[in-house]
Design a protein that fits this description.
With 228 residues, the chain is an all-alpha fold. The chain is built from 10 helices and no strands. The chain has a single domain, classed as Hypothetical protein af1432 (Orthogonal Bundle). Helix 2 packs antiparallel against helix 3, helix 4 packs antiparallel against helix 5 and helix 8 crosses helix 9.
Length: 228
C-alpha cells in the first residue's frame, strides 16, 4: 500500500497537543517516560501529534481509517529499542517492536493489532517499504518524518502550521533531539554487530560516527524546519 492520496482539506485538529485518555494510552505514556530520556520521550509524543495532523491532511478519519490508540502506541513507543534497560541484542527498530508487542499483548490488545503495531515500529526506518504495509505504517513514518522537519524528506510539511508546531514544541521541546537520537542509536549499535547491519540506519550512523564527529543526519538537522 502506498501513501494514501489527500482527499482535500480536512477539519482542523481542535487541540494539537491532546493525547488519548484511555487506560492503554496512559500505560503507554508511563512506560515511555519511565525508560526513555526526556529528549526521546518528547520526540516520540511529537511524532504522534504530527502523525495525527498528517492523517487529517490526508483525509483519514479516526475509527474509519485507523485506530488512534494503536497509532499512539506505535508512535510513542517506536524508539523503545533505545531504552537504557533493553537487551540490545537486535536492531533497535526490531527490539522496540518486540518490546512494544509484549507490552500490548499484556494489556489485552488483539494479536492482529499487535502485529500491525509491530510492523509500523520495525519498518519506521524503511522508506519505500513502510508505505506499502498499510495506513498505520504510513502514519507512523509520516509523523516521525515530520518531527525531523525535512531531514527525512519533504514529506507532508504542509500538514503542520507554524502555530500548531509552536504549540506542540512548547509542551514537548526538542532538547537537541537529533543529536540525542543519533547518540542513542550509535550506543545501542556498538554493543553487538547484530544491532548494526551494514547499510541499515544504525549501521550507517555507527559507520559515520566512526569516521567523523557528526553524521549527515545531524548536519542536515541544522537547516531543517525545526532545527535539532
Amino acid at each position: 500500500m502506498s501513501r494514501p492520496a489527500a482527499h482535500g482539506a480536512s477539519e482542523p485538529v481542535a487541540d494539537p497537543i491532546a493525547l488519548p485518555n484511555t487506560p492503554l494510552a496512559r500505560a503507554t505514556v508511563d512506560l515511555a517516560r519511565d525508560v526513555e530520556t526526556a529528549s526521546l520521550f518528547n520526540h516520540s509524543i511529537r511524532s504522534y501529534l504530527f502523525a495525527r495532523l498528517a492523517a487529517r491532511h490526508l483525509g483519514l478519519a479516526e475509527h474509519r481509517d485507523y485506530d488512534d490508540q494503536l497509532l499512539f502506541a506505535a508512535c510513542a513507543l517506536h524508539d523503545l529499542g533505545l531504552a537504557a534497560d533493553g537487551r540490545h541484542d537486535r536492531r533497535f527498530e526490531v527490539e522496540g517492536a518486540d518490546r512494544t508487542a509484549e507490552f500490548l499483548t499484556e494489556h489485552g490488545v488483539p494479536a492482529a493489532d499487535v502485529d500491525g503495531v509491530w510492523q509500523a515500529i520495525a519498518l519506521h526506518t524503511s522508506p519505500g517499504i513502510a508505505e506499502r504495509r498499510g495506513t498505520l505504517c504510513v502514519l507512523v513514518r509520516e509523523g516521525i518524518g515530520l518531527d525531523f522537519g525535512g531531514v527525512l524528506g519533504a514529506g507532508l510539511a504542509e500538514a503542520v502550521t507554524d502555530e500548531q508546531a509552536q504549540a506542540i514544541h512548547a509542551v514537548y521541546p526538542r532538547l537537541a533531539m537529533v543529536r540525542s537520537l543519533v547518540d542513542a542509536i550509535v550506543a545501542q549499535a556498538a554493543v553487538n554487530p547484530a544491532n548494526a547491519p551494514r547499510y541499515s540506519v544504525p549501521g550507517e550512523l555507527l559507520r559515520e560516527r566512526g569516521i567523523g564527529s557528526e553524521t549527515r543526519m545531524e548536519q542536515a538537522a541544522r537547516s531543517s524546519r525545526w532545527g535539532d
